[in-house]
Write a structure and sequence with these properties.
single chain; alpha/beta; Udp-n-acetylmuramoylalanyl-d-glutamate--2,6- Diaminopimelate Ligase, Chain: A, domain 1; UDP-N-acetylmuramoyl-L-alanine:D-glutamate ligase; Protein-Tyrosine Phosphatase, Chain A; 3 domains; 7-stranded mixed β-sheet
Length: 442
């Protein structure tokens, strides 16, 4: 956002009423939901959370010099007599945030690419941004801003000269992708894949496919859908009234052209790159040469440490699909011993034990030399792997304390698990024991 909107327009787009402040006041320069970030020029939106009501901190935001606040009617009434700044009252601050973002998306008039999928959506977003950067002014989702809060904040943070906005969309249940699609109004909708993720909440992979396909259902008549080829779970959701591009073996886009150079060779990342290429081509962009890809934190970054130890830090999240892909990459890329530090995969429902046992069998099949399991569920991967090079840890902290004694010179170490297990401390401990080699980042 910027000063293009005045206070009256901000209130109107948010579906609220201006309680205090000059209607003609030039609008805010940024939007935040954290009162601690409410610097001068910022619009603070007081969301009601499970632990605390953000609206209660609206006064603090104004005292810190915030441009104004959007709060529920009750908080607005409390602020009306004393507020020094813009106060907008709304029935539902979260809905107001969404509507404000939708209005800003329309004000920008830029193209929007939306990405969802069971795994790989963040990497695909990063690749799309890299492909677009040389020819389009591009804004994209940062960190984990991919929810009903993060997507609006991503849109509202886009500069007014943005030509393409790349938005990642996450979900944990029915209707969430549909709401994010309503807000972002994508021109291109990308489903990277569908797999057994969030089974604890959705029950079946068919239900997961239907939830992801809400992106396709919400596309406008001139939009383009990008979907994996040979995906029976998604076929019932293909729309005949819009263009659909299928990528991967059997699709119309089966391989990357030789004119594109990417900083990775793994099969799953190159498949993500095919999805990215289909998306940017839908906007008339044809990338060539070296594509600079800045992968998001904790998502497969490689770091060269002392003694030629390579760490693959992929501990942001995990599910059966992404675990297999990461293990296949480890098997293909490691020059020395292959070490896998694998944590619990969560939200897999009643079959979670089976998924972890199958993971252990895959670890053995791809030739991993050393397996370190972290957590109660991951322990089930141990017996199928077998052998003396098996270490079972109760917690990430325990694994962090012992990892340096397990790793040997020349090892490649994959660290991956669901976010809740906290494996980033293992990567940090290894990097502390073996500092990064000169020029070893990637």
């Amino acid at each position: 956002m910027n000063e293009r909107w005045d206070a009256a327009a901000v209130a109107g787009h948010a579906g609220g009423r201006l309680v205090t402040g000059d209607p003609a006041l030039a609008g805010p320069s940024s939007v935040t939901i954290d009162s601690r970030d409410a610097a001068p020029g910022a619009l603070f939106v007081g969301l009601a959370g499970s632990q605390q009501d953000g609206g209660a901190f609206a006064g603090d935001a104004l005292a810190a010099g915030a441009w104004g606040v959007i709060v529920g009617e009750g908080h607005a009434a409390e602020l009306a007599a004393t507020a020094d700044g813009v106060v907008v009252a709304v029935d539902d601050p979260l809905r107001a945030l969404a509507d404000l973002a939708r209005a800003w998306r329309r004000e920008l008039g830029c193209a929007v690419i939306a990405i969802t999928g069971s795994t790989g959506k963040t990497s695909t977003k990063d690749i799309i941004a890299g492909m677009l950067a040389p020819s389009r002014r591009t804004a994209a989702t940062v960190e984990n801003f991919n929810t009903e809060i993060g997507v609006p904040l991503t849109i509202l943070a886009a500069p007014d000269d943005t030509e393409v906005l790349v938005v990642e969309m996450a979900m944990r249940g029915e209707g969430q992708i549909a709401e994010l699609t309503r807000i972002a109004e994508p021109d291109v909708g990308v489903i990277v894949n569908v797999g057994p993720v969030h089974l604890e909440l959705l029950g079946t992979v068919e239900a997961i496919a239907a939830a992801k396909a809400e992106l396709v259902a919400g596309l406008g008549p001139d939009a383009v859908a990008v979907m994996p080829a040979n995906s029976p779970l998604l076929e019932p959701h293909v729309r005949g009234d819009i263009r659909t591009i299928r990528f991967g073996p059997g699709g119309e886009l089966e391989r990357l052209p030789e004119s594109i150079e990417l900083p990775f060779a793994s099969a799953h990342m190159r498949l993500n790159a095919l999805a990215a290429l289909a998306a940017v081509r839908a906007l008339g962009v044809e990338p060539s040469g070296v594509v600079e890809v800045k992968l998001s934190k904790l998502r497969g970054q490689r770091l060269l440490l002392e003694n030629n130890v390579v760490v693959i830090n992929d501990c942001y999240n995990a599910n059966p699909m992404s675990m297999r892909a990461a293990l296949d990459d480890l098997a293909d890329s490691a020059a020395g011993r292959k070490v896998a530090v694998l944590g619990d995969m969560r939200e897999l429902g009643p079959d979670q034990r089976r998924f972890h046992a199958e993971l252990g069998a895959h670890v053995r099949e791809v030739g991993v030399d050393v397996l370190v399991t972290v957590g109660e569920l991951a322990r089930d991967a141990g017996p199928p792997f077998g052998g003396e090079n098996l270490h079972s840890m109760e917690s990430a902290r325990q694994a962090a304390e012992q990892i340096a004694s397990i790793v040997e010179p020349g090892d490649t170490v994959l660290i991956k698990g669901s976010r809740g297990i906290g494996l980033e401390v293992v990567a940090a401990a290894l990097c502390e024991a073996l500092p990064p080699a000169a020029g070893g980042g990637s």
